[in-house]
Write the structure tokens for this entry.
Amino acid sequence: MSPGPSTIGRYKVLGTLGSGAMGTVYLAEDPLLKRTLAIKVVREGTGDAEVLQRFKREAEVSARLNHPHAITVFDVGEEPDLGPYLVMEFVEGERLSDRIRRAPLPPAEAVGFLLQAGEALAALHALGFIHRDIKPGNFMVGRDGRIKLMDFGIARDESSRLTTTNTFLGTPAYAAPEVVNGAGATVASDQWAFALTAYEMLTGDLPFLGDSVGATLYRIIHHEPVFLEELPEETKAVFRRAFEKEPARRPPDLQTFLRDLVEALPLEPALKHGCLARIELLGTERAPGVMPLRPSPPRGSWKRSRLLWAGALPVGVLLAWMAFFRRDTSRVLSIDSRPEAAEVFLDGTHLGPTPLRQVVVKGKAELLRLEKPDYQTLEVRLQPQDSDLLLRLQPAPFEVAVHSDPAGAEVLLDGEAKGRTPLSLAVPGTGTHQLRLTLEGHRPWNTVLERQKPLPDPVKLQKARTRMSAEKPGRLQKFFTGVFHREIRP
């Protein structure tokens, strides 16, 4: 793996913050302004004109938004040997999705975050933009308690002609029914995703959860939401209205949804009053960019629930989902592996075990990953000419615990000394490997190492037989010597 860049544009790279299917985010410093920044760089092979256009759009939206609860983008550019990059505000903290994964949030803490997030989203809508990918993973929670909305790369206004051919638009689990059915994203669909984010913050769960993406999309369109039993009835009623299938039957704006939610949640009277006063300013020029409300202890405990995004993704559903959002050309892949039954992931989405047929791929830069126990993970960057793939997995190294009785035996792997027992021996995954134990006064012990076949614990070494000494012949040797002499006597 080649080392990362030392500089990007005029910025000095300090380290790597994270890496994903589309690119890498670096920690950097502006040498002129002496401030720490985050730089997002598109992975090699995806830096085409369209991606650069998306980066410019993200910078444009951020600059126009200029909100205390939205990530600020300072610069955008293109490095000849690296590709497009985006220079943005560095927030020391974690994604809201990571915070939720540890445990659902107490109502007071959740409301504090939701008011900040709602102010940023309302300001975005007031500018005429639609975010189109509201979810916990697109909010950063700083160590100071501030929350920041980010990732405006697919945001658009009604006059925008920006299209996307390399990535999915939005996230299936947070898509509104009308969007799943093929309609364009609107303010109402952003508000649907915001309500889902609020529900997940409070419960750790999603109300349309299926065992696959296809099942979840079907439930979003056809099923009523399934709420945790422990959730108060007043709170269920608020979310039930927010998750109406018809946009016209949902709350008309974020202000109404947040007011209803705060009224229904078990909050201290003084905190509730402060929240309602702040909500009244939502979407206005007087909306405060203040610190979040300090949480108070929750009343009672709600059942912790975890979003399990498991199960194979039916290829037909994947095709349908892609077709809803993108009308560009596609290609069909067949994916097989040796050995078979390797789990396949396409840009992080689980497709199922090999062999796979009729896998529809959009664009030209998807990352294919294969995983199988006892084998090394294989990552492949798909090329435009790929059609039938046969991928070979390499066995992963394994470890063998070596103990002997008596201890202290020399351990040789394929003739190379590795130390003395007891020890843990790292064995390469490929090829056949010979293990030999030797100890003075004992017979050598040999075996062929096999994965998942432990050695005897301990290996009992047998004492070597003592050879008969010529200087001190034993009685048996003397007997045969006498017989021999008698036979040859003339």
In short: Confidence is low (pLDDT under 50) at residues 158-168, 288-329. The two ends are 85 Å apart (CA to CA). The first strand starts at residue 7 and ends at 8. The first helix runs from residue 49 to 65.
